[in-house]
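Task card 7
Instruction: Convert sequence to structure tokens.
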Amino acid sequence: MEQSAAQLLDLMRSLASPQPDPSMEPPRFQQMRPPTFPFDSATSVSRASFGDPVFVLCLARSGSTLLRFLLDAHQDLACPPETDLATMCSQLARTWSLLAGTPLLKDRDGTVPSVPEPVLTGVRNAVSQMIGHHLERRGKRRYCDKSMYTARHADLMLQLFPGVKFICLYRHPMDVIASGIEACPWGLKGFGFDSYAADSPNNSVLALARFWADHTAAIRSVEERFPERCHRVRYEDLVADPEATADGIFRFLGVPSAPGVSASCFTPDRERNGPGDYKIWQTSRITADSQGRGWSIPAGLIEPAVIDAVNQLADSLGYVRVDERWSVADMPPDLRLPGSWAQSASPRAAPADSTRQMPRAYLALGDLLQAGLFRVSERFARRWAAHAAESFLVIATSPSDVGVARWRVDLAARTVTLVDASKGDVDAAGNFGWQITGSAGAWERVIAGTANLNVALRRRELRYCDTGTTAVTTAATRMSMLADLLGITSWRSGETAVRSDAVPAA
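Output:
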């Protein structure tokens, strides 16, 4: 037994040596030995390159695969699919230390103790051999790693690689929540969501809010403790101006700029094996289409204590807070606070002489509302009782620069008024009891009969808002009345419902 332990210690000492003795290695592994340094190839990779690896600190659904593509498209950088390299290093260091009789135990304040230098040398040599083989195969000079939840191992990475650098990737919490729900339509599973889903089994929004707060706080902690080693990237800046954002990253890493990298990143050169965003393989360009999708997420489902934690982090990152105004406005705002992005990354304005085409759903909504008022009768008044004299807003939005269309419907006066916000007459909407808001595309589907009004409401494609003092049954009654007014319900007695081709041709 003592002899076996002594042999094990001898083996660990040999692995920790900068120059392992080939004679101590089992013959079956000799033919798989990675190349030594420097490589005798056109692209020489030195040990100095391994002193400066790059780790992306990120969480799921934050745009990390897109960032990996941009890094990997640079001529000097190799960023493979998720390897969990930092997790592997942590486990290897813990196991190595345990077998050496010096187990790594957290201090009383929760910090990780310094790892013995022989263990660091052994882990570093093992990792360098793997990385060196990958770099030579790819013809690259510097290794980047994009794996989830590396932030928890940042202290060890600093011990292993004194020249390590971190790219801290963030995304607005509500957009992460929306993306997480989209990725897991049948229940939160994978992506690191499981434990949070178990703690909040009946509330996916709350579960993902906690997920975002915990992991974002871990990344912020690394950024605060090691600011000179960290470079902040927000997903919103990345998609608004990918070239400028990428150039800032490359300058931080000390590598040449790469003009056009936002287009060249979508090529077959990107390695497919391994975890990553399921959508990116059908993506050919970078757009901001996914920004603001969290605007439809009901913030009221998040507990106050979690909202406070989320907003503290949002404030530190220059993001719009999640409060009682969330999802109430017609259009999702830029989720970045004014002044928190570079001028070059600001949203692009449409040319002054550009021609704007109004979405056909705008025209259809106005026509149907007007036609509905012409049909209002005693039957309508009896069916909907007091609601038949209400005033309300119907709002359609567009992601383009067309703007927002608002119709004020006064059932008592039998009028429909188009409120033109661009002319400053929003106040012309006057008093109204409730409103319903949705994108032009959502309204078009509802009008055409390809989407159910109540299903669109449950999916938050349409959003109903009132004073907050009405009963749930009141909201349901109002939606039924609106469907009757628009002629999109099949149970309108004595009258013919609008055909599914009611949307005017473009």
